[in-house]
Amino acid sequence: MLIKAHFHILVLVISLLIKSLAQRARRCGRPLEFNPTALSQTGLNLLFLISALISSAVADTGDSAEREKFSTAWRAAANGSRADFERLMPQLEDYLLYPYLRYEDLRHRRAKVPDEEMAGFLSGHRDWAFTAGLERAWLRTLGESGRWESLLQHAPGEIEDTEVDCFLAQARIKTGQTEGLVSVAQSLWTVGKSQPDACDPVFRWLKSEGGVTSGLAWERITRAMEARQPKFTLYLSRYLAPEDKVWADRWYQLDRSAYRQLKKAAKWPDQDKSREIAAYGLRRLARSDPDRAWETWLAIESGFSWGSDTRGGILREIALWSAVEGVDGTPVRMDAVPVPLRDGKLMEWWVRFNLSNEFWGDAVETIEGMPPEQRDDARWRFWNARALFETGEREASEAQLAELALEANYYGFLAADLLDLPYTICPEEPNVTRAHVDTLRDQAGFQRALELRKAGIPNWSRSEWKIAVKTLDRDGLRAAAALSTQENWPDMAIFALGNSGDLRWYEWRFPLEYAGLVEEQASNRGLDSAWVMGLMRSESAMAEDAISSAGARGLMQVMPGTARQLARQHSFKYTGYQQLMRAEDNIRFGTTYLRDLLDRFGNNQVLVSGAYNAGPHVVERWMTERKTEDPAIWVETIPYFETRDYIPRVLAFSTIYDWRMQNSVSRVSSRMPAFDESEPGSAHTGSSAEVVCRTSG
To answer: Helices 344-356 and 308-325: crossing angle, nearest 10°?
Structure first.
């Protein structure tokens, strides 16, 4: 059976080699021919893959039984089946991942484990992914049980855990080691939120030592307001002197009214706390109502002796949010900001305000005022060229657009569209030696990551991998990309190449593994398959088991709530969030949702991409508030930075997937119809683009 499996692997890889060469020949417009020079790198890569796959298969047969036992033991621990866990654990002492079982055992027994045993285990596994979490849990347990000497002995110098820090402070109090502790306790107390219960004894001691002053309480109130915890200030006010409490109460009431009554500050005395409250209120008001903030500033600014930084910071905040909201008074407010405080973010929104109003000359002038490194970004090179074009400076514009069109990104593709040029996509063959990959595969961290993945424990597998790649140089990152590609782990290859800068290794950065499923589901729903691939690549980096911090799951990052809704609307069977971790089901739900959004937004891929990321109601609000017929300007002025970058990424990736899937390559502009057009395709006279490899030389 093993030989038969190896034979099938060999046949599969040889067929992939032939298919790869045929695809490359078709892209270059010539018949397939076996040129040894052209074959060399691709052939070596695939032959190296053959050997790696067979070697992996041979090694895997020896580990599979232990791996299955390990997985069973791990599940038993997760399910609370302690007896099964303890029965299986001794049978796996020689298995690579045995320390993970010890970790789980020690975590479970940490209140009773002898100090020497726990400390020895942690010391011997410093580079394992579980160590930091286990150490924090153990130190907390030592604190909870009042084992102060052990806690002081075994706590490292830096732990970055507030609860542990408070237990350590308690330990110093209990053991009489309080020299210098007042300042430590004050730093724990002076934060803008409630601290863990473990801190309460420390804070009681601090108060008994006279360490909580009115000034310190005011500092904490300021931080609570910055952290948007205004109700917490009511508790903190008890520590203020009477004259300070008046200002704290005033601040709280102003915050409750969203600073709409801040003009009353014109009658306040000019002192530190009044200036602080007024400055904070103006900044908060600018976010919600920049016009009111400007009017309030004009009404109260002469009554306070602002420092130059405070004055400039207020003016910058009002100007920034005026530009974000696109209000008419933005130019005057921008001019009022001192030049040293015109940072990159402010300059970007100044340009966006000019674009949204088609103040093309002002846009050119503002871009020229950006720092060089910002101005040289593809985004601002495109908008500078576009603004020059609109102001009639065609020669300069076309020269800049032609240079930008040599780049394979959203702005490069838009530049090529404006000049009706071919798209420039210049692939590079992945170039990694087998020896380098084998060396990496033999490293302990990568061994653990790969074995955990085979055992079906993706969260710890990714943690081990991320630790292992931290110290790699560029060649090491390339080898990591090769290793993860061999292991059918595309997201790790994508991240490695992003960090190495090898953005033209398209075969690995834009894998085709799920293209068949996508084409089938897209065809069933009348969708553009390359666009679905581009969106999926943007969502999950092609990780079938991806889970976001918000709970979105799988390749297309479908939320369980969305899946339930789709199941009801379309009579799908939905059995729970684990179903979304299977590629076929995830793509079915994701493409169905895209079809619903396309019907809702008039088949406009720009709007649907935005709705997929930010939500349909948000996009509808933006369409109402940010009126323009130019979709590129609309995208550029979206207030959510994530969505503002997401839509261009999806469109650029869709173009590359058109090319990778050997489709007719749609121009980006053809996917971006003017908002007064109901169907895509009419934004450019030619809806498809030739793809060539050109250089500036």
So the answer is: 30
Other Cβ atoms within 10 Å of 169 Cβ, number:
24
The Cα 41–Cα 38 span in angstroms is 7
Close Cβ partners of 617 (under 8 Å, ≥ 6 residues apart): none
Under DSSP, the state recorded for 266 is: G
DSSP secondary structure letters along 561-625:
HHHHHHHHHHT-----GGGGGSHHHHHHHHHHHHHHHHHHTTT-HHHHHHHHHH-HHHHHHHHHH
| pLDDT > 80? residue 61 | no
The H-assigned helical ranges of 264-307 are 272-288, 290-300
What number of H helices and E strands is found in the chain?
Answer: 37, 2
Closest Cα partner for 609 from 646, 636, 638? 646
Query: What is the greatest pairwise CA distance in the chain?
Result: 89
Instruction: With beta carbons less than 8 A apart as the criterion, state whether 662 and 407 touch.
Output: no
Which is more confident, 369 or 675? 369
Other Cβ atoms less than 10 A from the Cβ of 291: the count is 17
Residue 210, helix vs strand vs coil? coil
Q: Are 666 and 657 in contact (CB under 8 A)?
A: no
Distance CA 383, CA 443 (A): 47
Lookup: tokens for 278: 């007024």
What span, in angstroms and rounded, lies between the C-alpha atoms of 679 and 648? 19
Query: Which residues, listed in sequence order, are joined to residue 553 by a DSSP beta bridge?
Result: 547, 558
Q: Is residue 286 a contact partner of residue 321, using CB atoms and an 8 Å limit?
A: yes
**Regarding predicted confidence, which is higher, 581 or 681?**
581
Specify which residues 691 forms β-bridges with. 423
pLDDT value at position 535? 98
| CA separation for the pair 96, 61 (Å, rounded) | 15
For the beta carbon of residue 526, count every other beta carbon within 10 angstroms.
10
Show the DSSP H helices in 405-473 as ranges: 410-419, 434-441, 444-454, 458-469
CA distance 565 to 574: 10
Cα atoms in the Cβ-side hemisphere of radius 13 Å centred on 545: 13
* Secondary element (H or E) of residue 691: strand 691-692
Tens digits of residue pLDDT in 633-677? 999 999 999 999 999 999 999 999 999 999 999 999 999 998 875
Q: What is the pLDDT of residue 17?
A: 45
303 close to 311: Cβ distance less than 8 angstroms: no
Q: Provide the token pair at 174.
A: 């209990």
